[in-house]
């Protein structure tokens, strides 16, 4: 069944129109483009590590700078491919689990960090300047933060629109809602959703309690209390 649009065109019920397709592609390409600076920086860091450069103190005294950064080069490359897959037609031929799993995990980690990234970058920059280290130029940390922020925003828009276009029937109603197509996996999906909700609540409530100043469950100050530790950009989500 088709219904006319105000512009005189037609759109199939249950499928996004061309406007949303354009939004999806812009967001997906934007996510891939945003991750490109991080990808390039990591290549330089890997090459620098192979030449004996990089960090060698602290935790890095037991870690291989070149190997760790080489691993993140691969991860950043996969993130760029993910963005392209969400925006191009060949992405519809990629198995669902192979595409949606990294997209879902990426959104879960990065979207929740968007409000914290600007503050984290400012604190990290102050800490880096205070230590007098020249391991990182001043512009690299903001650029890395911009890469993650842009990728998170693009992914948060492109992935749901991609799923809406590829599986429109899944968005026509709630599980087992009257009038919706019956699904043998409906009860399993509902159970999984309830379990996921319970886990999120169980993790979120203590975090809210600690954010409001609660101390129960935390170590005493001076004995490893996370809230009393020294902030270091080398341990942030934007590094290594």
Automatic annotation (TrEMBL):
It comes from the Bacteria. The chain crosses the membrane at residues 26-45, 65-86, 98-123, 143-163. Keywords: Membrane, Transmembrane, Transmembrane helix. This is Uncharacterized protein. It comes from Planobispora longispora.
């Amino acid at each position: 069944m088709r219904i006319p649009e105000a512009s005189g065109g037609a759109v199939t019920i249950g499928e996004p129109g061309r406007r949303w397709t354009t939004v999806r592609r812009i967001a997906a390409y934007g996510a891939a483009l945003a991750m490109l600076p991080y990808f390039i920086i990591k290549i330089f860091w890997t090459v620098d590590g192979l030449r004996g450069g990089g960090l060698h103190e602290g935790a890095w005294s037991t870690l291989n700078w070149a190997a760790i950064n080489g691993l993140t080069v691969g991860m950043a490359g996969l993130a760029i491919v993910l963005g392209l897959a969400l925006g191009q037609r060949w992405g519809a031929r990629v198995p669902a689990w192979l595409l949606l799993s990294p997209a879902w995990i990426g959104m879960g980690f990065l979207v929740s960090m968007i409000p914290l990234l600007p503050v984290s970058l400012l604190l990290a920059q102050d800490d880096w300047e205070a230590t007098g280290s020249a391991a990182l130029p001043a512009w690299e940390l903001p650029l890395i933060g911009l890469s993650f922020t842009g990728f998170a925003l693009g992914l948060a828009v492109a992935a749901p629109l991609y799923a809406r276009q590829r599986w429109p029937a899944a968005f026509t109603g709630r599980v087992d809602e009257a009038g919706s197509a019956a699904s043998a996996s409906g009860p399993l999906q509902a159970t999984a959703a309830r379990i996921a909700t319970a886990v999120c609540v169980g993790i979120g409530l203590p975090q809210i309690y600690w954010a409001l100043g609660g101390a129960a469950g935390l170590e005493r100050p001076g004995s490893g209390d996370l809230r009393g530790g020294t902030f270091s950009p080398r341990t942030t989500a934007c590094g290594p």
